[in-house]
Amino acid sequence: MINQNFRADFEIHFHEVNPQEEAAPLTILHFLEDTAIAHSQAVGFGVRQLKEEGLAWILNRWHLQMDHYPKLGETVAIETWPSKFERFYATREFFIRDSKQSVIGRASSLWIFYNILTKRPLRVRPEFQEAYGLNLARAIENPFTSLESSLDGNGKEVAFSVRRSDIDTNGHVNNANYLQWILEAVPDHIYQDCYLSSLEIQYKKETTYGSKIRSCCKCDPAGPLNYLGNHIILGEESGLELALAKTVWESKPK
After folding, report:
1. Among 61, 67, 152, 254, which is least packed, fewest CB within 10 Å?
2. Pfam family of this protein, just one (predicted)?
3. pLDDT tens, residue by residue, 32-81
4. CA distances from 34 to 6, 126, 135, 146, 176 (A)
């Protein structure tokens, strides 16, 4: 079955922009997540409905690519669709469109269907594909690459404590907040002179309020004024990998 893609519109507000009055990468991730949640609600499998059965979709991978970021006051449209249901996971695609309906960004994501009580994956229900429909098109071809689990050489580390405001409805850190930890470890000259054009994240372990974490980053040149960053989020006490990430930074247009 092929279904129409789902769409939601968002205006860029003052608290969602950076000093250049552009939407922050975290803002874009929130828009994507909100659109996915709204789509599920619209087809009858919303967060609350699943939670009442002890079930949830757990995000495992993000890959976001941005040509440029929308400005304060602009409206963007997020278009989303499922591209695969298989065993215990599903993939969901996104286009980010500006007010002229031009695609300015794209994303792919991988979600695991999960029993909250047993903390184990479950086989995806057949009725999901019937409800959501299926569109085999991919927003990003071959979106999920292998991510580095070790950082050779000198890198930068920043330590954090998980705050109450980091926690989502499942009692764990919201997936988008890992991006804040990643960005805090990026060297200042890269963060100021470049923009985040590509982000890949793999979530490996959950973490909760009060936990201590370390964000580790190593950025290397990838051409004139461009950089490739490898990132690891570690539990301070356990030493376990909580998330891996890769970022691509391109010089800001003059």
Report:
1. 254
2. Acyl-ACP_TE
3. 999 999 999 999 999 999 999 999 999 999 999 999 999 999 999 999 99
4. 12, 24, 20, 27, 11
